[in-house]
Amino acid sequence: MNAQPDRFDVIVVGAGIAGASVAAELSTDLHVLLLEREPHPGLHATGRSAAMYEPGYGPAVIRALTRASRAFFDNPCSPHIQHPLLTPRDVVFIARDYQTGTLDQMLHEIGQGLSPLPINEAHARMPLIREGYASAAVLNRMTADIDVDALHQHYLRSCRSNRASLVTRADVTALRRRGGDWQAETPQGTFRAPVVINAAGAWADQLAVMADAAPLGLTPKRRTAMIITWPQGPVPDDWPMVVDADEQFYLKPDAGKLLISPADATPSAPCDAHPDEMDIAICADRIQTAFDVEIRRIERSWAGLRSFLPDGNPVAGYDPEAEGFFWLAGQGGYGIQTAPALSRAAAALVRRTPLPADIKAEGVTAEALAVSRDSLRRPG
Questions:
Q1: What does the pLDDT average to over 111-140?
Q2: Which of 290, 62, 23, 275 is nearest to 165 (CA)?
Q3: What is the mean pLDDT of the chain?
Q4: Is the pLDDT of residue 130 over 70?
Q5: Contact 191, 337 (CB under 8 A)
Q6: Coil/strand/helix, residue 378
Q7: Measured between alpha carbons, how far is 101 from 115 in angstroms, rounded to an integer?
Q8: For residue range 289-329, what is the model confidence (pLDDT) as tens digits?
Q9: Coil, strand, or helix at residue 297?
Q10: 342: nearest Cα among 58, 65, 75, 93
Q11: I need a labelling partner for 300 at 20 to 30 A (CA). Which of 61, 88, 211, 368 fits?
Q12: Least confident window among 36-40, 111-115, 181-185, 374-378
């Protein structure tokens, strides 16, 4: 361990799932500091996620990272995890007459795990679908609920077991390169390390500018969700999640209640996101139109920011123009389901070692994750 209490091998900025997971991987043999701007980790995107394990969705690199994460989800071998991280839950996509082409395209592009579902069987699986609303459906059997809190706590506890340091209420107010080290100034003190990992989520571009690195064009997008009760009693646990073919809404059983969302993706400045009253009203209208559900009261509503890079892919790599500045950002709403593989890949890249063989076997390459500003430099 380093003798100087304020100097570390690696500083990770952001203790959400991305930062906590890579810190856990690196702290097995490095002196790691995890800085979190909020009073506790996971307040923003991680803590507000209703994550599903969906291996068939997202860009190719996301799908590959999701597949590479499955072995950990199935067998985490962690003293910090006491129950399964995945609970199987089917997803049913429903379409009105004018949306059936979207389902055909989905079956063609994704294929594995998806199958057409007769509309009467869709009603049998989810009796709340309003009669006459949908004319076609597709079933996905490869999906599962993820215990987000258990996964996040596994990584945070692993950090503690590895003697990594976590400092909260530590918003980085200045970040400078001095004498081969990055100096991160925070209200809790100034910390130094030769490597800084930018896992700041919606604030990642802002942190880069602070470090005199060019931003990557990250766009945070707000997603709204809320919990309602079913007037007839507890919602059966075995009901599937139901998603509109064009992703205009979804409804999902959640601890005996219903989690609903308008599946919005509204560009936003980095902030502590809150639900917009119009998004709540739109969600209520869409849900009551598609389902035989009367929304008498919204028990709880919230919003989170999912951050996207211009090409839709995540980035994990050193900035070619800022020595020791490592990006881990742009997971675009897939950060939970890819965390086991992406954290291991990022840790290898931080150490400048080859990617783990099982991750490479799924088709993930360092080049696919590398920092690129080409899309920002193209005209238009």
A1: 95
A2: 23
A3: 93
A4: yes
A5: no
A6: coil
A7: 14
A8: 999 999 999 999 999 999 999 999 999 999 999 999 999 99
A9: coil
A10: 65
A11: 88
A12: 374-378
- State yes or no: pLDDT of 378 exceeds 80: no
| Cβ-contact 221, 261 below 8 angstroms | no
Written as six digits, the tokens of 39 are 């009073």
Q: Is the entire prediction scored with pTM above 0.85?
A: yes
The residues, ordered by sequence, that sit 6+ positions from 41 with a Cβ below 8 Å of its Cβ are: 15, 16, 20, 34, 152, 156, 166, 168
Q: Tell me how far apart the alpha carbons of residues 157 and 140 are, in angstroms, rounded to a whole number.
A: 33
The structure tokens listed for 202 are 């919606």
CA 196 to chain centre: 21
Q: Which residue has the tokens 């020791």?
A: 324
Q: Where are the alpha helices (DSSP H) in the chain?
A: 17-26, 60-74, 100-109, 119-125, 148-161, 204-210, 277-290, 335-350, 357-361, 366-369, 374-377
Amino acid at 15: A
DSSP state of 58: S
Amino acid identity of residue 227, one-letter, is I
Tokens (6 digits) for 368: 């696919």
Sequence letter at residue 105: Q
What is the C-alpha to C-alpha distance for residues 333 and 291, in angstroms, rounded to an integer? 26
SS3 at position 11: strand
- 203-212 in b/e form (b: 16+ CB < 10 A) is bbbbbbebbe
Cα separation, 133 vs 49, whole angstroms: 28
Return the closest-CA partner of residue 224 out of 288, 269, 271, 282. Answer: 282
In this predicted structure, what is the pLDDT of residue 380? 33
Kindly tell me if the per-residue pLDDT of 50 is higher than 80.
no
Q: Which of 309, 244, 250 is nearest to 58 (CA)?
A: 309
* DSSP string for 241-288: EEEETTSS-EEEEETTEEEEE----EE--SS-----HHHHHHHHHHHH
Task: Name the strands in the sheet holding 32-35, side by side, starting at the edge strand that comes first in the sequence.
Answer: 165-167, 32-35, 10-13, 195-198, 325-329, 315-318
